[in-house]
Amino acid sequence: CRAAGNPAPTVVCGRNGVAVGTGEPELVTRSRAGTYLCNATNSQGTRSRLVTVRVEYEPSISEPGCPARRLWVEGTAAELACAASGNPPPHVTCAKLGDGQDPSPASPNVTRAHAGTYQCRATNPHGSALRNVTVAVEYSPAAVSLRVLPSANVSRGASFSVECRAEGLPPPTYGWALPPAPNLRFAADNRSVAVAGAAAANRGLYTCTATNRHGRRAGSVMVRVDESRLALVASLGSLGAVTAVGLAAAGGYYLKSTACKKGEYNVRDAEGSSEAACLHRQRHDRGEVYGIQLTQP
Fold first, then answer.
1. In terms of domains, do 261 and 284 share one?
2. SMART domains of this UniProt entry (predicted)?
């Protein structure tokens, strides 16, 4: 600060009682910003003046103002705010790497497509700063699917399993509603249930529910236990001339008659076979019973 007076005044500027600018150049730092008091003094008196110093500097982006990892929820407003320091205050823009997408308050609601890495840039007349931000999108369970292995049509006594799969973030937990039976075994993660030695109690609707903190979704599958081909029952004729043999195996092979001679038949197609002229079927309380005549009556 320069001052006029006679005799020529002495001028001293300082802040908080500490004089600065005594003639030697000093390196400007941000700490130099503030209000200074300048006093001009001679033998005739003193005049004072306040001086405000502003220090400008290039932008910077730090973790507190711009966390490197963000968690969004599907269906909420898509907004990526990032604070930066600098003087003058910098302008900040964020864009998804690879497609230039700029989520802002006017953008659509968050979808799973918003997940990815964004680059935020802060700019003022003195330079710019960059920072990458990774965005993860959480969503409620979706696309619940159930699969029965090896098939949803199960033969009595066979083993099968029902597997449940669902998308979701955080990964969903699984719960089941199914026919109660003693031969059930659930996987450690509860995503599947295994059944050993299927019985009538195991047939019915199997429902899996996937749940996370954003919601739940269920899917179902029907399991059928087939008891129509449990066994062939042997029967004897009153004269001892007719013999019938039964075997208990779904889709197995049974004794057949080719012109009433010993051999093998497949139960599934034996009745309709032209070679099984001696094969007949009867209905009983327990289901259908197949008999095969081995010798001529």
1. yes
2. IG (SM00409), IGc2 (SM00408)
Do the domain assignments include residue 74? yes
Could you list the residue range(s) of the whole structural domain that residue 44 is in?
10-53
Is residue 273 included in any domain, yes or no?
A: yes
**CA 117, 113, 142 angle in degrees (round to 5)?**
130
Tell me, yes or no, whether 158 and 215 share the same domain.
Answer: yes
Give this prediction's pTM.
0.60
- Counting the structural domains of the chain, the total is 4
Q: Judge if 208 and 280 occupy the same domain.
A: no
Is 231 contained in some domain? no
Q: Which amino acid is at 207?
A: T
Task: Report DSSP letters for 62-103, one per residue.
Answer: -TTTS-SEEEEETTSB-------EEESPPEEEEEETTT----
Return per-residue pLDDT of the chain as tens, 297 residues. Answer: 889 999 999 999 888 888 887 667 778 899 889 999 999 999 999 999 999 999 999 999 999 999 999 999 999 988 898 999 999 999 999 999 986 555 544 457 899 999 999 999 999 999 999 999 999 999 999 989 999 999 999 999 999 999 999 999 999 999 999 999 999 999 999 999 999 999 999 999 999 999 999 999 999 999 999 876 543 333 333 323 333 333 333 333 333 333 334 444 444 444 444 444 444 444 445 455 455 544 343
Do residue 184 and residue 210 come from a single domain?
yes
